[in-house]
């Protein structure tokens, strides 16, 4: 991952493409739900994007004639954004992120085929000695908050 310092001396991230994302997290198609990272500051925040491809097979059954992205996909994309944030930190690099829990989930807007969602994750709390962290993730669709959740992960 490429990091640079800005003129103030603070860390500034460089966007990541899909290949660079796969160098950080272990997910692969069809379960890799992050297409690009627009901002990543390890241990601080991660902003990512996911294009909802209308050709995804899931839309044949959810729902015929009125397709909507299933909430479990939204939650998984949120978890993967948190995974990138955590696994980009040296202490968790190369680990497998395991989903421990999710709290305070709200689905506020439909996410439809053809949409591109933006996900923003930040660490809420961390237990380094156990390799467990909780991240707050907000999911936006067309600049409107579509969903939010607190995701807890174990780095193994």
Number of strands: 8
Series of H and E elements? EEHEEHEEEE
Largest sheet: 6 strands, antiparallel
C-alpha Rg, in Å? 15 Å
Structural class: mainly beta
Account of the 3D structure:
With 156 residues, the protein is mainly β. 14% of the residues lie in helices and 41% in strands. It has two helices and eight strands, in the order E-E-H-E-E-H-E-E-E-E. It has helices at residues 18-22, 71-87; strands at 3-5, 11-13, 36-41, 45-51, 97-107, 116-127, 132-141, 144-155. The strands form two sheets. It has a six-stranded antiparallel beta sheet, covered by helices on one side. A two-stranded antiparallel sheet has the order 1-2. The radius of gyration is 15 Å and the shape is globular. It starts with a strand and ends with a strand. The mean pLDDT is 93.
Short key terms for the protein model shown above:
single chain, 156 residues, mainly beta, six-stranded antiparallel beta sheet, 14% helix
Task: Characterize this entry briefly.
The protein is mainly beta and 156 residues long. It is built from 2 helices and 8 strands.
Topology record:
Layout: E1 3-5, E2 11-13, H1 18-22, E3 36-41, E4 45-51, H2 71-87, E5 97-107, E6 116-127, E7 132-141, E8 144-155
């Amino acid at each position: 991952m490429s990091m640079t310092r800005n003129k103030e001396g603070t860390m500034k991230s460089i966007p990541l493409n899909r290949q660079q994302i796969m160098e950080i997290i272990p997910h692969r198609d069809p379960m890799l739900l992050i297409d690009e990272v627009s901002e990543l500051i390890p241990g601080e925040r991660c902003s990512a994007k996911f294009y909802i491809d209308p050709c995804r097979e899931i839309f044949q059954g959810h729902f015929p004639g009125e397709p909507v992205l299933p909430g479990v996909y939204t939650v998984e994309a949120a978890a993967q954004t948190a995974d990138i944030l955590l696994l980009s930190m040296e202490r968790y690099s190369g680990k497998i992120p395991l989903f421990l829990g999710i709290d305070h989930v709200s689905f506020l807007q439909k996410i439809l085929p053809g949409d591109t969602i933006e996900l923003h994750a930040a660490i809420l709390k961390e237990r380094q000695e156990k390799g467990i962290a909780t991240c707050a993730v907000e999911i936006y669709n067309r600049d409107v908050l579509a969903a939010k959740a607190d995701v807890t992960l174990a780095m193994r």
